[in-house]
Design a protein that fits this description.
The protein is an alpha+beta fold. A 7-stranded mixed β-sheet has the order 1-2-3-4-5-7-6. The longest helix is centred in the first third of the chain and has 14 residues.
Length: about 170
């Protein structure tokens, strides 16, 4: 597989939104399945691209997955503080997993963070059950930051997101 990481093109937003939504649904990461209120957010790649950089992994003309790189605090950042970049919505199509696309997407975000003036760390939030993603993050040097764990849905106690940080 010859994986290329590049900025997503507007014509790919819908397909990437579907890949992201399917990945979360197939992995059982949405409490209410197709009726989950987060599903439209996952599908809305255009909104993320308007405020951050959406990257895709492609093999030839095949879209494998994508990620959102947020260069600092802003409308699509969840936990980034000044001087921190954030990784959001990492997803790889099920039939493309295990081939390095996810790691290549994270590495591309790290390269962008290192090229961002004043950026000293990269942060991210993840669900407890995203074990494959955790392995990628830890292999690349991210460390858990339990003091920053947070709950995006305060009325649901079991939705605490784990956080990771990589100091550049």
């Amino acid at each position: 597989m010859d994986i290329v990481i590049r900025r997503a093109e507007p014509g790919e937003y819908e397909a990437l939104g579907e890949i992201t939504a399917r990945a979360y649904l197939q992995d059982g990461l949405l409490d209410y399945g197709e009726g989950d209120e987060y599903l439209p957010v996952l599908k809305d790649v255009a909104a993320r691209a308007a405020a951050a950089e959406v990257l895709v992994a492609v093999d030839g003309d095949r879209l494998l997955g994508g990620v959102t790189f947020v260069a600092g605090p802003g409308p699509v950042a969840d936990i980034a503080r000044p001087g921190e970049a954030e990784i959001r919505a990492l997803a790889v199509a099920h039939d493309a997993r295990g081939r390095g696309a996810g790691e290549a997407l994270v590495r591309a975000c790290l390269d962008r963070a290192r090229a961002t003036e004043g950026c000293t760390a990269v942060v991210l939030s993840t669900q407890r059950s995203m074990h494959a993603a955790h392995r990628i993050y830890e292999r690349l040097g991210f460390v858990r930051t339990p003091a920053r764990d947070w709950n995006p849905v305060p009325h649901l106690d079991d939705v605490t997101l784990l956080t990771y940080e990589l100091t550049l």
